[in-house]
Design goal:
Helix content is about 40%, strand content about 25%. It has about 230 residues and is of the alpha/beta class. The strands form 3 sheets. The chain has a 4-stranded antiparallel sheet, with helices on one face. A 4-stranded parallel sheet has the order 4-3-5-6. It has a two-stranded antiparallel ribbon with strand order 2-7. The two termini are about 15 Å apart.
Length: about 230
């Protein structure tokens, strides 16, 4: 086994040991990956953004809300998901507090294709501003398929600003996952982020992983190579 693989495995093992044994919290900590970037010019480079699907769901719980027609509401019930009917949305009456709470409470909001066109009129622009505008579910699609795909999806985004840290980050697991699954998610995340870089590894200064409340573990940078 190559030294780089041993390093990654050892760091994952150390991270999990710290969070599950040395300093265990009363909640399930998320495992995050952070990329420190370099050789970007905030005056010319405005933004980096992209979504990718990881091999394994990085979240212990994935909260989804279904704004559905009768068929999709029945599916949501069977899956144990929260749902709202068209009549429920009409009762919201564009109340900003209710809509904001809705956006904050769920990782993703799905809407039947027959309903999604009415969302702006019934709920206003708040969900769109929060980046939580519903995703359409077509008549020939199932809620289960949509949720499974989105549960594994993570987003990397950065707006460049002069003097601000240049860092991309996203969840890639939680401390109750199998180490091999965290490792596979890390490798997938690194490979994806490299596709967002103009100069590949030249734009990567450092990569580290950490749990929500734990220390950082460097897996690339400071003379440490991941690949």
């Amino acid at each position: 086994m190559a030294a780089k693989q041993l390093l990654l495995k050892d760091n994952i093992k150390a991270l999990l040991h710290y969070s599950n044994n040395t300093n265990k919290r009363n909640f399930t900590e998320t495992v995050e990956i952070h990329f420190g970037l370099k050789n970007f010019d905030p005056a010319r480079d405005k933004r980096i953004a992209g979504n990718t699907e990881l091999p394994h769901n990085p979240r212990k719980k994935f909260a989804a809300l279904v704004l559905g027609n009768e068929k999709h509401i029945m599916e949501a019930k069977d899956l144990g998901l929260d749902f709202r009917s068209l009549d429920d949305l009409k009762k919201v009456n564009r109340d900003k507090k209710i809509v904001k709470k809705m956006g904050k409470s769920y990782d993703k909001i799905l809407a039947s294709a027959t309903i999604i066109r009415q969302v702006p009129r019934l709920l206003g622009p708040q969900l769109n501003r929060m980046g939580k505008f519903p995703l359409a579910v077509k008549a020939n699609e199932t809620i289960a398929e949509k949720v499974e795909g989105f549960a594994k999806n993570v987003k990397f985004a950065l707006k460049f600003k002069a003097g601000a840290p240049m860092c991309l980050s996203a969840p890639i697991g939680h401390i109750e996952m199998e180490p091999i699954h965290i490792e596979q998610n890390i490798i997938a995340a690194v490979n994806f982020v490299l596709t967002l870089m103009k100069q590949g590894w030249i734009n990567i200064k450092k990569i580290h992983i950490k749990s929500t409340m734990g220390p950082s573990y460097t897996v690339y940078g400071n003379s440490i190579a991941l690949v």
